[in-house]
Every structure is written in C-alpha cells, then in structure tokens.
C-alpha cells in the first residue's frame, strides 16, 4: 500500500463526523507511519481548546493558526494527517497539501455525519439553532471543494476497520 504514497503525506479531508481521526489512526497503524491531527496540534500550540479559541480569538485567528500548523506538520512528514473540516476549503492550505502529499476525501452522507457529531457538543460551528441544518449547509458549500481531493473514499456507517480497508485499497 505504501507504493501509492511513496514517502509523501496522506492528508484526510472531509466534514466533521466523517471519521478523519478514527480512520487516520488505523491507517497510520497499518502503514506504520506517524499519525498527526491538525486540530490537536492547534490546541497544543494555542494551549486551549478549539472551542475556546473560537470564543476568545474568533474564527479568522483560528484559521490563521490552522494554516501555520498545517504547514509545519506537512514539512515534518511523511505522516497520516487528519485535518479539521474547514482546512481544505482554504486554497492556501490546498496548495500546501498538494505540494506535500496525497489528499483523500472521506465522504459521508448527512445521516452518518449527524449520527456521529450529535454525540459530541464540542464543535463551535455547530452551536446553532439547528445544527443538523448547519451541517447540511456546510455539505452543500464544501462538497464541491472536497471533490478536488486526489482520492475519495466513502465513509459509510460501518465499522471503522471496513473504511480503513477501503482507504488502504485506494492507496495500493
Ligand atoms: C471545523 C471542523 C473542526 C475544527 C473546527 C472547524 C470546520 O474539525 O477544525 O471546529 O470548519 O468544519 P473536525 O472536522 O475534526 O470536527
């Protein structure tokens, strides 16, 4: 499976709840590569949670930090990198990603995404009157951009191991 990656990063993109972190960890394990989560690195750099970052500094500041962290992580690779749902939307980040590796969109339907995000109330973008509708709006706006990823794998509502196998197959 390493043939397709050839020493480059694998960057997982897609909406909140698509399984980027869970699948990323399993893929990294299978390929014996480091796993890095951009949201986690942002929280470590800022020494606060993403939710607090949004409240105290606002989304633009979060996005600026996100780009700096992505740039650093991709330079330190090769690794399996999971990104926050908004990362690939920024053309600057897309350029950094395509220069340093393969991007893979974990594509999921609304019900699958909603089923996964509703359990955790930590996402600042979903603190709205109707979070499911917000998720749907984000799907409509972002899916055309995610479709620019090098590869797409369906992240269905099945066992993580099944999606992981599909990712490894796509890389082979
Ligand atoms: C965001 C997704 C989150 C996090 C931030 C913004 C987005 O990451 O980066 O809350 O814009 O979709 P996950 O996709 O890991 O939830």
What do these coordinates show?
- The chain is of the alpha/beta class and 172 residues long.
- It has helices spanning 2-5, 20-31, 38-46, 50-57, 59-76, 91-100, 110-117, 131-146, 160-171; strands spanning 9-13, 35-37, 80-82, 101-107, 151-154.
- It has one domain: 3-Layer(aba) Sandwich (Rossmann fold), CATH 3.40.50.300.
- Helix 5 (59-76) runs parallel beside helix 6.
- The longest helix is centred in the middle third of the chain and has 18 residues, at 59-76.
- Bound molecules: shikimate-3-phosphate (S3P).
- Shikimate-3-phosphate is lined by residues 16, 20, 39, 50, 84-86, 123-125.
- Residues 16, 20, 39, 50, 84-86, 123-125 line the site of shikimate-3-phosphate (S3P).
Question: Tags for this entry?
Answer:
single chain; 172 residues; alpha/beta; Rossmann fold; five-stranded parallel beta sheet; 5 strands; globular; binds shikimate-3-phosphate
Fourth-tier CATH superfamily name: P-loop containing nucleotide triphosphate hydrolases
Can you tell me the CATH class? Alpha Beta
Query: Uncertain segments of ≥5 residues (pLDDT<50)?
Result: none
Strand order of the largest sheet: 2-3-1-4-5
Mean pLDDT value? 94
Binding site for ATP: 17-22, 123
Subunit structure: Monomer.
Keywords: Amino-acid biosynthesis, Aromatic amino acid biosynthesis, ATP-binding, Cytoplasm, Kinase, Magnesium, Metal-binding, Nucleotide-binding, Transferase
Subcellular location: Cytoplasm
